[in-house]
Specification:
Strand content: under 5%
Number of strands: 2
Radius of gyration: 20 Å
Shape: globular
Helix content: 25-40%
Order of helices and strands: HHHHHHHHHEEH
Oligomer: single chain
């Protein structure tokens, strides 16, 4: 399983029993090691990553108390071992309900020009996005509709836990729990999730020029890189992937439009035309070259070759 810097899988009970979190010796979220060739960063000026805030966000991310019936956490759909996505086509929410789209990978969400989130970009910022699943009737259940409790009930629940009183006070100066504070902490943690230890990173570090052949790549891998970067036509006659998935972050261009995948994962007879965002292409596979999950919002593609053939066809 891939190891992500600064992350620790744990249960909430471990905080209480084993003292996993030492508030005097936190993981260094605020000063993580980012390569100097990574220049994109969608962190807003009013919510910089702090060790205290990201630690609180990490606890919230893994805590099933954030769902109405205590069975689902953010991590239930965004699993660390699968680049914070899900191997299931649709993730399971409350009462066995299924999400509307495939769980997007969260790795390197920070390192992008795009600031909107969800496949259809309906959340203007990561902060806004972070509590929308909590307030979804199917996903985590604090919707305030269809018989669900409102999100204010969640604040009361969390305020009753001593560890949240301590963590909110440590992050914000007092134990008051609000949606804005939950949003800030979750966004800080998600932006701390990073992956820069690939074969690509090792090669780029050696030559410091993405257009040059990488010494650690095979001839075929270097050819693939050249095809990815170069636009169609011209002397290189590339595939033009770089036009939308911009290296070295491999994030999606904010001006990209629908890519021709219009399937609806819940209803094969319906279409989904509003998808214009994609996660970073980083961390698609594990150390053995195996995909960490299906791809596209409708989970319709199960291999990288499926994706390449789709773009070749269109």
């Amino acid at each position: 399983m891939k190891k992500y810097p600064l992350l620790l899988i744990f249960t909430i009970s471990s905080i209480l029993i084993a003292g996993t979190i030492d508030l005097n010796n936190l993981d260094h979220y605020a000063n993580s090691n980012v390569p100097n060739y990574i220049t994109k960063d969608n962190t807003p000026n009013n919510n910089p990553i702090t060790d205290a805030g990201a630690t609180l966000g990490r606890v919230l991310f893994y805590d099933k108390k954030l769902s109405a019936n205590g069975t689902v956490s953010c991590a239930s759909c965004h699993k660390q071992e699968f680049a914070f996505s899900d191997t299931a086509a649709l993730s399971v929410g409350l009462n066995s309900g299924l999400t509307g789209r495939h769980a997007m990978r969260l790795v390197n969400a920070r390192f992008a020009n795009e600031v909107a989130f969800f496949w259809d970009e309906r959340a203007a910022t990561l902060e806004i996005q972070s509590t929308m699943p909590i307030q979804d009737h199917v996903e985590m259940g604090f919707s305030g509709t269809q018989g669900d409790l409102p999100i204010d009930s969640l604040f009361i629940r969390l305020e009753a836990e001593n560890y949240y009183q301590e963590l909110f006070t440590f992050a914000y100066g007092d134990a008051n729990i609000t949606e804005a504070r939950i949003r800030r902490a979750l966004a800080q943690f998600i932006r701390s999730i990073q992956s820069f230890d690939s074969k690509f990173d090792a090669g780029l570090a050696q030559v410091n020029n993405i257009a040059q052949p990488f010494p650690n790549f095979t001839a075929q891998e270097n050819q693939g890189k050249a095809l990815f970067i170069a636009p169609p036509g011209g002397p290189a006659n590339g595939a033009g992937c770089q036009g939308c998935h911009q290296a070295p972050e491999f994030d999606i261009n904010p001006n990209s439009q629908n890519n021709g995948i219009i399937g609806n994962a819940q209803d094969p007879n319906a279409t989904d035309l509003t998808v214009t965002k994609a996660p970073s292409l980083r961390d698609l596979v594990n150390a053995l070259g195996q995909l960490k999950g299906t791809m596209m919002h409708d989970a319709s593609m199960t291999s990288i070759m499926d994706v390449i053939n789709h773009y070749n066809n269109i």
